[in-house]
Fold this protein.
Amino acid sequence: MKGFVQTLFLALALGLTAPAPAQHATAFDIEDGGRAFETACAACHGPDGNLIAGIDFRRGVFRRPLTDAEITDIILHGIPNTPMPATPGMSEEQAVRIVAYLRSLPEAFTEPAAVGDAARGREIFAGTGNCLDCHRVAGQGARLGPDLSRIGLDRRVAELELALLDPDAEVQPAHRTFTVTPKRGAPVTGRLLNHDTFTVQLMDDQERLRLFQKSELRDFGFTNSPMPSYRDTLDAQALADVVSYLVSLRGESTP
Amino acid sequence: MTYRNRRLAVLACGLAATLAASFAAEAQVSFERLLNADREPENWLNYSSTLDNQRYSRLDQIDTGNVTELELAWVWQARSLEKFEATPLVVDGVLYTVQAPNDVVALDAATGRVFWTYHHEPSPAARTCCGRVNRGLAILGDTLFMGTIDAHLLAIDARSGTLVWDTVVADATQNYSITMSPMVVRDKVMIGTAGGDFATRGQIAAFNVETGKEVWRFYTIPGPGEPGNETWAGDSWRIGGAAVWNTGAYDPETNLAFWGTGNPQPDWDGRERRGDNLYSDSVVALDADTGKLAWHYQFTPHDELDYDSTQPPVLADIVWRGEPRKVMLWANRNGLMYVLDRVTGKFLFGKPYVKVNWMDGFDADGRPQRVPGMLPSPEGTLIRPHVHGAINWAPPSFSPRTGLFYVAHWENSGIMAIEGQFPQSVGINRRQTAMGQVNLEPFFNNDEEAYGVVRAYNTDTLEPAWEFKMTDITWGGVLTTAGDLAFSGGREGYLLGLDARSGELLWRESLGGQINSAPMSYAVDGKQYVAIAAGSALFAFTLRE
């Protein structure tokens, strides 16, 4: 409460007498909304806003398209019959600033393209780089690796460079590679889709969805990413070109 | 059958029903029955069956030899998307449970068919930190008791499902809520308040079972002039948390009711509340008649890591290191396991049961010795165990047959603790930080990151006698039975039937939803059932005919 009173005082001092619509949010709104998010929302949504399945605020992903007014309403009143609670005691102004903060995230997360030629990058990607053997862009290519149709929204330049030079440095949980060795038969390597105490579910290199009972396996475990390092195959310019191409991939807006 | 015979049969049935009704009307759940619940194992009369919280069933029809014959008897689907955390009660063939947040449901315990539902509409002001959940009911006579997320205590007629009385325990607009099951001792029903992650002051209150009138109230943070108030800097005692959000235990020999208390608030930043912050992260022993404090033991003085101590206290009379002792066993969220003398509150023994790096030993009084620097910092500090702890709130079990203490908990979990912020998981699966949910989620962790276990601990040494390892973590509790079985489960949604002596997996069933509760057992017409909530549903298993 004390914090809110201070905020209100500051808001009045700055002449912000009415809640500003999120699209005209000031830096103050966004910063204050971020603080309120940390207090009121992060315990469930996580500090990066990506802990609830199907929701990722940093990437602008909601379960369905929502207007600013709708998000404000959800923050204040919750969603009935779901774990999303109402936030009694929060003012509408405060909720509007949280919306401003949420709307600012995807913008802050993306960066200008790297210094490279995206068109040349695209040629390398689809040609000598053999990237479509594993990856998929806009419905073209394979499904074994991450779908890169929106990668420009999801990854920064430095992260993309790292992924090309040192693919095992950081692998997202949903793209870990797993190898199982049945008691009879050849080992199968694929993308881990799920596992538990008794079973392993993966997509094999033929893109088949397969379940293995651990009791029928001789061995199983995580293995390195099948993605090669491009350290020796792409020179600095080619690398910049590919990164520029990847940064340009913004897909379509999330439904 | 002729019409006349049919009429006679109907009359006879009516007579039998009348007789049964009059018999049932007399067969109220007296406090004697609650106190001696172990003598009627076909019923489950308290949160953990018995008031010592052993969560041990004397039923032995299902045993290590036939557990493989278990099959589904029935499923009841709750009309709720909240986590299903309640343990049901069973009284003479009727099962009572809670559809989150606060609907009481009476079911036929043999078929899962519904008799009635009592709906409580919580105030829109209700605010919970971690889900609009409820962990169960209490019963006395013909009255059920339930705490609500808008911090009311309700008394509901167990036969008709109608409201008897409704008492406000605390002010929901001030962030108080109730998620625990109440505890009945003689003519009082006791309940604590949740909300300890907000600016609240924890309390336990006792109400007359007939009238709902308050009898006593104990604040878990002492007020000015009371011993312990000096352990809070300035006015921080007013809003210091120390909530009570899981049920207690009761010892009739000393007439003491034992309660675990939650973290001090603000959770991850202790600068405004310097001092030990009594009685946060403690067990308090209260006189059940007066609510006066008999003794306390603080597990985590001046906690800045959110190590609530709200796990149900487990009481046992055991031979401990060669001597008969009345002990309290406690697997704490802070990663330490304890044996306390429950008569005096004396610390007998404690040690880490998972990787712990915030302390490195105890002094003679059982106060943990801090490792310098293992506190939230501006740049973040790697601390073990995790923000959700080695265990969160799930009920453990003690089997008097095996003498082992059974706990389902997490191993290999750490947090990056940053001053004043919600801590972040260490490891690639950030979903670790998310509270338990209803649905099964894809899981990608490896062993170095975190996993769940069921372990059976020797009470002399607090060393595990065996371990059953899961791939995912667990929010589930444990039930042990006279059939030498230990039932448990976790976020993967398997109900596990383990050999209580060896830990060997004897039986399992996939329930298709996360297990966020503890199993229980009961019998109807001589047939034993094991029940567990998973996802949004309650499942009951019994032996194949």
